Amino acid sequence: MSLIGALNVGQSALAVAQAQLQVTGNNISNSGDPNYADEVANTTPGNDTQISPGIFIGTGTDLTDVQRQVDESLNQRLNSAVSDNQAANVTEQWSGQVQSVFNALGSNSFDTQVSTFLGDWSSLANDPTDTSQRTVVLDDGQSLSLTLNNLSGQLQTLQSQAGSQLSTLATNANQLTQQIAGLNQQISLSQSGSGTDNALLDQRDADVQNLAQLVNVTTVNQANGTVNIYVGSQPLVVDTTASAMSVQSMATSTGQPSYQLVFTANNSPVPATSGQLAATIQAQQQITSVLGQLNNLAAGLISGLNTLHASGQGLEGFSTVTGTSQVLDPTAALNSTAAGLDFTPTNGSFVVTLKNSQTGLSSSTLVPVNLGGTGTQTSLNSLVTSLNAIPNVQASIQGGHLTISSTNPADQIYFSQDSSGTLAALGINTFFSGDNAENIAVNSTIANSPNLIAAAQNGQPGDNSNALAISTMANTSQTVLGGQSVMSAYQSMINGIAQNTATATSNAASTLDIQNALSAQQQSVSGVSIDEETVNMMKQQLMYQGAARLVSTIDTMMTALMAIT
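Now predict its structure.
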């Protein structure tokens, strides 16, 4: 053993103590960064040297590596929890927005307006000849229509916003996968040289967790230091190559937008089940579903009221009337798909009455509608033929719309007893036009002439039977609504929205608890403890001081030795 060997021991101790102090200082300076993983400077004793047979002596200490304190399994679980919580938050956000659209507890909600509107019909029944009350019926009918238009518009706006959000999220995800692929390359190069750059590993872990906020991912570490990332079983990042994702719009039978997340290269679906992307797609589907329910609700209101109104009579008849509904193929049976009617008529008949305003005389004709499946089925063309066979009645087709006119200026046309629903389906003598929440409106013919509001069923001005029937229709079963009434269908829709929102809120809270618990575990492994680092710093300081004293002592001994020689 020589003084030079002892000096080398002291020098190695000084170097290691300096390195450990630098690692400790780095830990302390990054203690506020949640993406920083605590580092430990690991050492091993130097190889012993044989100084005589059977006697070995140490040569000091070596710094082997600076190691990040991470638990890859725990990080995987945390990333999964992050995906679930972000999905729950997004679902809660969109569900809350859908619920706020309806303002079900507000003073101007849909059910309140329906009650007001149908109450107007009850008031009209008290005096069917009251012109001012007829105006109230029109005004509140228009308000109800505008409310449905507004609800539809707000839901469609949410649909559009969800679509735009999806594109933004996909772009963000692609940026992260490109960054991870780039970091993979840098980390692989650093490992092939002198060691791994821990700062790059920290950055990659942070990017993976940010990616997990957007889409559910799993990671598989590779021997060369890279990490492969998968969504389900589909690769998203492999080594230094990232697969881009995009949002694809799909056509639907309802005409409403629908989206899916696909790999840009081959348009194959990305099996996203969690994260913001999957939740936003699901939210868009929920909005579309609610919009479909709203459209059905509006269709039930339109069909139910129009069916009653079309068989009633106002204070005056029509000299001419044109249906609001278009028939696509006038040669096709009225109940066929080819006819294209929004509301389907059935087998039955209706009555056309002509009343002479000068003589008071009237004549009625039963018009059969054969849609029973046997014999020649009634088409728009054959219906026109039947109507033209009635004296003083002229029927024609204009752009698929049926027009019925009186050829005698003194005759007015009235309708009644429509057991087939044909008049309502064609938009003849109806109160509403349209077939859904977006296009529902008060029939312009009625709006321009309140006296045409059909309060009667027997043709007498004082008759109120049709107004009474309409006033109670809110709780009447509607075929369009699958046997539900308008109000029960509305309540079912509102209850479903409320339940979805409550479930989303509960899921957001529970998934946050899980994420927080896993995050706390992760921080206990990877987080920097100032108390622990302070203790380490004191130990390293003492080590450095001891090593320095050793070097100083050996220097004194060498000086003394040199003086002797």
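The two ends are 19 Å apart (CA to CA).
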